[in-house]
């Protein structure tokens, strides 16, 4: 009798069989792009999720190039200033920051994207919540020490530093330091203490 009871007793569902989100890899993401899945769209891979962004308006393009030109003309040597190019943050993340400053020259990355950045700058207008949230948490998790947001809406520059564990953030990491800067102030990248930039210039 015991064997009959055992065979008819309800079974506890295994948590391994519960529905769960599927994380996409960089390889799969690139293959989708090759097949035209994102034709006409801005998309990036963030911790296994494919994020589709709104089209760039003229203001976003203007501020992105404004920041990039200031960095390129600053005399910061030994670096490559990149605009909206991917950074390889592992098998599940391939973000495309508006501006990134990486060690070395363009020739150093003919075969692979950089895996780190000295400075990342995002232009926050329609993407401000995303830049402060998921993007900031991802950059902190990957050890980006200096993360700036050009906040177009509020006419200010937000500098995030001191990345570390933070359970309140989307990916369990965040920035302990946030300073807000306005026109009339000067700011300096952590990796280039000999350089200073006018916030007014960064805000255009």
- Alpha-beta content class: alpha+beta
CATH architecture: Alpha-Beta Complex
Number of helices: 5
Q: Can you say what the CATH homologous superfamily is?
A: tt1808, chain A
Shape: globular
Structural domains: how many:
1
Q: Give helix and strand order, one letter per element, not per position.
A: HHEEHEEEHEEEEEH
What fraction of the residues are assigned to beta strands by DSSP?
A: 25-35%
Under CATH at level 1, the class stands as Alpha Beta
**Spatial order of the strands in the main sheet?**
3-4-5-6-7-8
Distance between the termini: 82 Å
Rg of Cα set: 21 Å
| Average pLDDT metric | 91
Described by strand count, sense and barrel closure, the largest sheet is: 6 strands, mixed
* Assembly form of the protein: single chain
Annotation, overall tally of beta strands: 10
Helix content: 10-25%
Low-confidence stretches are 1-12
CATH topology: tt1808, chain A
């Amino acid at each position: 009798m015991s064997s009959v009871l055992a065979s008819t007793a309800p079974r506890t569902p295994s948590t391994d069989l519960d529905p769960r989100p599927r994380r996409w890899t960089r390889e799969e993401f690139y293959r989708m792009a090759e097949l035209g899945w994102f034709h006409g769209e801005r998309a990036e891979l963030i911790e296994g999720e494919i994020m589709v962004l709104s089209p760039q308006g003229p203001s976003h393009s203007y501020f992105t190039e404004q920041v990039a030109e200031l960095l390129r003309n600053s005399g910061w040597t030994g670096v490559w200033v990149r605009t909206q190019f991917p950074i390889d943050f592992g098998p599940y993340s391939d973000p495309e920051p508006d501006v990134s400053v990486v060690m070395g020259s363009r020739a150093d990355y003919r075969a692979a994207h950089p895996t780190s950045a000295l400075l990342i700058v995002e232009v926050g207008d329609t993407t401000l919540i995303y830049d402060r949230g998921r993007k900031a948490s991802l950059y902190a998790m990957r050890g980006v020490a200096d993360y700036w947001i050009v906040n177009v809406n509020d006419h200010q520059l937000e500098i995030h530093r001191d990345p570390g564990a933070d359970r309140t953030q989307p990916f369990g990491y965040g920035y302990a330091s946030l300073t807000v800067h306005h026109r009339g102030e000067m700011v300096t990248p952590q990796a280039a203490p000999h350089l200073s930039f006018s916030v007014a210039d960064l805000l255009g």
